[in-house]
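Issue: ligand-bound run for magnesium ion - logging full I/O for the record.

Environment: standard queue, default settings, no custom constraints.

Inputs:
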Amino acid sequence: MNRGGALGKRLDALRINNESLMHGAHRSLEKGDIKAIALSYVDNSGLSRVKAIPFAKLESALAKGVGMSPVFDAFLFDDTITASAYSGGPIGDIRLFPDLESMALVAGAPGWAWAPAIRFSQDGEEYSLCHRSYAARTMAALAEVGIVAKMSFEIEWIVSDGQGDEFIPGCDGPAYGLERIVELGDYLLDILRALEIAGIEVEQVHPEYAPGQFEISVAPLDPVRAADASVLVKHIIRSSSSRFGLRASFAPSVVAGGVGNGGHLHCSFWRDGLNLFSGGSKRNGLTDAGESILAGVLKELPALCAIGAPSVASYLRLVPQHWAGVFRCWGVENREAALRLVEATTLVAAESANAELKPFDLSSSPYLTVGAVAAVAKHYFDKSLSLPEPVGVDPASLSPDELVKLGIERLPKSVGEALDCLYASKVITESLGEELLTAFAAVRVAEVGQLDGKSPEEVVAATRWKY
Ligand code: GLU
Ligand code: MG
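Outputs:
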């Protein structure tokens, strides 16, 4: 057993923390409500794969982990299997360790709890393809330079009451219409109640633009926990949907040509307890480090799309005038700018100032997304970069000449273009490391091959119920 190295230490720290939660007062363990626990992790195709254990096996899982094949690192969205230099075979075993800190009851499935799994090799070393460990590593690197991040994902979904794979909007009310709350009020309350029981702090829930579409936003958290929350909120929404005879789709595109589901990421960065996006002497109240981080994010945004908008269907959503932010520019409260600054104002407290990255969607691994954004922040915070002028109009309304003059480009239009940008980004590729980068890209490239030549309608039909 490798217990001495730095990576072994990570497992030790997790076990010690789990041990104290198990024997202390974990909020979900108090009443003995848990009969079984689903331990899931997000794979390279953005899907959550799971092993579940009866409650009686929890102590053993905390000590030894739960075995699972490494083959899932090569799984595509449709469960076909590719391979890469670092993933693909049926040989070997990875140990899944729950993080009890994020464990939560799932009220829609009585007796069930969920916990994120961290993957370790059999000798206790951090597994290079574990997305959650990547996120934790990048946060640790950020902490080393004195910066703490807070993040949250907006969760958009479309609800259907069609039979089987047929999509029929689960409500008839108009976009943002109060009527949708009348139609699906019980369902929405079921979700809110389940989220409260799970300990997720909901900020808002509202009907969205597309037929049958809703959105839930949750309070910002430590980024690894924010990624956990994204997985858990989707799990809870699915479970409530199933109780109500409905089906939820978090896919980037649910109807070809329509407005899709985003998974916008809100983030802020803090030093010495102060938000770097407020109270500073730079534009819009930004601090020097805050402006430099945002300028870095803008610079790396095409590469970040490969992580945050990684699927073939992502690029059916990423079209102009769909509120998905497909132009590389920033704006204050501009919903067509890829990077939206929510600045501190009279009614937005300094603590609430944040940046929203709009191109991302929920076919991504939230752990890779928070990790890559943190890696960008760590690289650029001390580079004193300046932002260009904010864009105050819909970039799609500008002529090609105006776009060039303002230095505004379209973000990648396909997985292939996005991956080229990713490979060109030293900051993000170095943070991922060769193994994770290779395994991730192999899956995304294979998915392109799988859907090659398909019409948008066919891509949507193949992916609508996968995410
Ligand atoms: N549904 C839009 C998207 O695909 C976002 C709508 C909004 O919340 O501004 O990102
Ligand atoms: Mg929205």
